[in-house]
Fold these 2 entries.
Entry 1:
Amino acid sequence: MSHSTDIRENISLHPFNTFHIDSTARFFTEISRIEHARALIESGKLSEVPFLLLGGGSNLLFTGNFKGIVVHIKNKGISIIEQAKDTVLVKVSAGENWHEFVLWCVNQGFGGLENLSLIPGNVGSCPIQNIGAYGVEVKDSFHSLEAIDLQTGELHVYASADCNFGYRDSIFKHELKGKVAIWSVTFLLKSNPQVHLEYGAIRQELAVMGIENPGIADVSQAVCNIRQSKLPDPRLLGNAGSFFKNPTVDQKFADKLLESFPRLVFYPLGEEKVKLAAGWLIEQCGWKGFREGDAGVHESQALVLVNYGNATGSNILTLAHRVQNSVYERFGVKLEMEVNVI
Ligand SMILES: Cc1cc2nc3c(=O)[nH]c(=O)nc-3n(C[C@H](O)[C@H](O)[C@H](O)COP(=O)(O)OP(=O)(O)OC[C@H]3O[C@@H](n4cnc5c(N)ncnc54)[C@H](O)[C@@H]3O)c2cc1C
């Protein structure tokens, strides 16, 4: 049986990126079955023109029209593959929406991902930058993933140790970038879960909700409440979440900074390193609430760059560079972008 791929031309990417940048893809195709992926590979298209794998488009900034082919990964399915006394292995297709999957886990009573509620995007992208929030990262519940080799079409399994997970980082941003398409992710979840409340605001929010002995559904709801009150909703205001990573520096460097900036916000990482709050650094440089044309820095969360309507990707990128330069001049700290600039 042949499985040809349906390749469309000159497709607007506006609905496919949460920054709402109005650019166009020269070619666009959707992949919902592995046969489609293999037919695309066999067609040779991926070596003829540049390609971009697309999930929910919530961690991307298009800075112009995309001259190659955008491959939208849309395979669906969630299955329990093994259940032990206290744990469960759940395999999820890359095209599933992340938050809907988290809610599915919460409804089943499977714990581990509830602190990651309401993060936009798809399951297939979650290992790429090892998504994290409220004291938890995806690697904490990650078991393995399947990825398609984009040269051969073969499926390979990557265990946690193969993925080189770090802070907003993995092998899929480096050696394997553009080489594989993540096709499914398997999670090791707890059927008798403990909740993680260490991250300050969660306890506070649960108290506001009047909950004394929270379960995972309460934690999920508390996280949703906090996120909704702090972060701009991309449906209403274009953005891709944190634009920059929180920079990691040596403790000695942080001590020096503290002499000049006693209110510096930082988190210790072991004994020798600290993570600086990028949002605080940006705010100190006066960017919070800045707007030029339709590109801006969010008024209550300086780490988030926003598109008020008709900003181009270049407008946003120019602003990002200005923010980086001023933070470097003031603090001597280089901010690295978290968002993928295309
Ligand atoms: C309001 C808001 C809040 C956010 N909060 C957080 C947060 O708290 N924590 C956090 O970590 N992130 C956060 N993010 C960032 C974003 O949600 C995550 O990075 C998410 O995992 C991106 O998923 P996506 O499907 O939208 O990826 P996309 O933007 O579609 O793609 C991201 C990158 O992954 C590649 N890619 C996509 N799918 C595949 C695949 N199947 N195989 C191989 N490569 C692929 C793309 O080519 C691209 O390079 C936030 C974003 C927004 C808009």
Note: The longest strand covers residues 180-190.
Entry 2:
Amino acid sequence: MREIALAEHLIRLGARLQLLEAETHLSRDRLIKLYKEVKGVSPPRGMLPFSPDWFMNARPNIHSSLFHSIYRHVGAHIAANEERSTLRSLMKSYELYLETVTMHGEEPVLSFTRAWTLPRFFDSGVLTLNACACCGGRFIAHADAQQTGFVCGLCKTA
Ligand SMILES: [Zn+2]
């Protein structure tokens, strides 16, 4: 029952099938059936969006940097020994991200599946955070392109 509730919650957040398979103990057939029940359509086929380059585009970078700062904050309040602490942090952070974005009258740019790939890129050292020399905001960057004196896109246009 808990697995089904978790899978349903993930589907509502926009999780792709591969994510559901990785994070729950339910069979692929069961997940496809559940997906159809929740969404009314079959899950999309194809590969997950796994490119770190996407996070470098202007709007995606602002949105995912916002998400990441929420995630770091939420992560600090969820005990690491709690069951599925990373996944729970991601789900909570993503809900807060959606709230923040819609509060500002914007459309969400970051999907839950992409948000889920983000900590992996940090853990594997592909992505890092660059602090803006102007506003002090921290923005996602390629780890091999870390700059001193970096100025973020928001400050550049201000
Ligand atoms: Zn800035």
Note: The helical segments are 2-13, 17-23, 28-39, 58-75, 85-103, 112-123, 153-157.
